[in-house]
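Appendix B. Chain record.
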Amino acid sequence: MKAALLLAPKEIQIHEVPEPELGQMDVSIKPIRAGICGSDVSLYLGRRTASAYPLLLGHEVVGHVTAIGKGVTKLAVGQRVIVEPNYPCGTCQFCRAGRGNICPNKKSLGVSISGCFAESFAAPAEFVWPVPDTVTDEDAVAIEPLAVSLHALWQSGSQLGDTVAVIGCGSTGLLLIQAAVAQGMRVFAHDKLESKVEMARKLGAQVQSNADVAQLWRDEAVATVFECAGASVTVELALSAVPRGAQVILLGLSSSQANFQPLRFVREGLRLSGSIIYDHPNDFARAIKLVEQKVLSPSKIISHRFAFNDIGQALQLASTGQAGKVLLNMDS
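Structure tokens predicted for this chain:
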């Protein structure tokens, strides 16, 4: 079968590789559509070190089941499915406490194990979800990143009528904006790129590009600031501008040091927390239901589509930061 292998940073080629082995509790899936995530871009650019080369990237996917392991009873050949691509071990102290999202032993599709940018891949049946017939392929492929944004929004405790701010209007930020607006919140968006700002505006966010962010957030009583850009400068902006009594939730994956003043955090009753992926299995189930019920349409953030054979061009575009969600048509 054909698979897109990352041979080294910025070097990706399509090669013939063996079909994946199918375990007793696994299913084989033929992808229809696949999305390019920020983690794919980080690995492609070499900002994040691959576990080993060559690496088969990809984890945002919708496809059809083509084979099932002998122990699988709840899925059938031909079903259209999506995959929850992070597999916690289920036995460590964090998994036992219901916090599998921070399991130190979890395996991640396209990061620590072979991914889905191929004509076929295998996944544990426990993490494979049937797609309702009323959900389009393009909405389905974006449910995984939607679940990331929803997890952070639900973690924040934000409710109808609250005002929140989102820094960084990449896929995570845009999906968070869509979800917050749909749940009756007022959202202020901030990004350095006008194209991203315009996408946020179309999703219902309010944007004051030249405003004093700290003053604006104080005046508008912002309760939660979501940092989705993953850069030390935006982390510092969130920490310095968050209003008294509010909270900052970090979703971006910055590896650079960021500075803040602990004294202010203590005196003003501020809160800081991180949000990583989602809780298994509840967050994925809720995300699918919201899309099925037409409350959310994550495909609205898709800006570009490429044939699978043009994956190099797709990754190059995604790495510029100028695009929304970049999609691969795996059957073309």
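Further analysis of this model is presented in Appendix C.
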